[in-house]
Amino acid sequence: MQISGKVKLPKGKRVAVNIGCDFDAASVWLGAYKLFSPAYMSRGEFGAEVGTPRLLKLFDRYHIKTSWCIPGHTVDTHTDICKEIVAKGHEICHHGYAHESVTELSYDEEKAVMEKGLTALQSIGVTPRGYRSPDWDFSQNTLAILEEYGFRYDSSLMGNDFYPYRIRPVNVNLEKGNTYGPPSEILEIPVSWYLDDFPTQEHISDRGAEGLRSVHEVFDRWKSTFDYACNIEGASFVLTLHPQTSGRAHFIKELEQFIQYMESNGAWFTTLGEIYDTFEETSVGANKYFNNV
After folding, report:
1. Homologous superfamily of the 5-279 domain (CATH)
2. How many Å apart are CA 73 and CA 61, to the nearest integer?
3. Does residue 112 carry a pLDDT above 60?
4. Of 15, 85, 166, 287, whose CA is between 20 and 30 Å from 2?
5. Cα–Cα distance measured from residue 138 to residue 267, given in angstroms and rounded to the nearest whole number
6. Closest Cα to residue 272, out of 229, 238, 222?
7. Residue 32 carries which DSSP code?
8. For 98-109, what is each residue's pLDDT tens digit?
9. For 33-74, what is each residue's pLDDT tens digit?
């Protein structure tokens, strides 16, 4: 059985809201899509030069501390803005080096990527406690590597929606049922493609991804999910933004309105690290906490 739990919320708050910014810049095009043209590089450049400063100003306006998952390639390419994110007190998590797909890597290759990403983050004064996998995927080696390097929490998997849980290694079988190993000490703070800006907004013509969907469609779904989370005890609501996406004028305008909505409805804006620090393990399924939904 999955070992999950709730978050201890400050008095008067209804739900823990984490805004996570995956500051991929050029690396998402290099690692995830294998696209190297100057046109795609310019989209990453927009994220660093325009989108990130806009988001930082927005978070300053509402006194929100957020979690930035930054590949080492971004640190090495856009060092000054990464240092500014750190200086403003936002949390920094490991996010690979060049947004590599870890499922394509051997154990030694994945460890080398881990080391390279850590070295880049250490160059701006960061030793991360948290990890987010590029492409939100794990290899059969990822969990063991995270344990070896002393990470305390991950935010890449989708085995729950509103409740953090202990990651279990899974043995995948085609001829019989899957089996699970013992739970890790590493806490999973789950993500969801439904709460990510990138899939509906980014046009990738070379891959047939239309993007360019209505931003109102996105925020209708986010609002509905947030409202559900407000009605269950000790829930976490984890958003994933990309500066080259959410930093666009039409999107950031709606994002500010959504922040205002969440703020007026009991949101505790917090980091992944604070969710980890206030996690209360229950050893029972999260359904115990479902009330009035």
Report:
1. Glycoside hydrolase/deacetylase (3.20.20.370)
2. 29
3. yes
4. 15
5. 30
6. 238
7. I
8. 999 999 999 999
9. 999 999 999 999 999 999 999 999 999 999 999 999 999 999
Q: Which residues are CB-contacts of 54 (< 8 A; sequence separation ≥ 6)?
A: 243, 247, 252
User: What's residue 53's pLDDT?
Assistant: 98
Q: What letter does residue 289 receive in the DSSP assignment?
A: G
Beta carbons of 4 and 160 less than 8 angstroms apart = yes
Q: Provide the residue type at 34 as one letter.
A: K
CB 201 within 8 A of CB 212: yes
Question: Average pLDDT in the 262-267 region?
Answer: 98
Question: How many angstroms separate the CA atoms of 160 and 149, rounded?
Answer: 25
Distance between CA atoms of 284 and 48, rounded to whole angstroms? 42
Quickly state the pLDDT bin for 208 (edges 50, 70, 90): low
Model pTM score: 0.95
Rounded percentage of the chain residues whose pLDDT exceeds 70: 96
Which residue, 8, 16, 65, is CA-closest to 236?
16
Domain ranges within the chain, ordered by starting residue = 5-279
How far is C-alpha 81 from the geometric centre of its chain's CA atoms? 19
- How far is 196 from 155, CA to CA, in rounded Å? 13
Sign of the four-CA dihedral 123, 124, 129, 134: negative
Sign of CA dihedral 128, 131, 132, 133: positive
> Tokens 């390419």 correspond to what residue?
77
Taking residues 179-184, report their average pLDDT. Answer: 97
Strand-pair category, 236-241 with 15-22: parallel
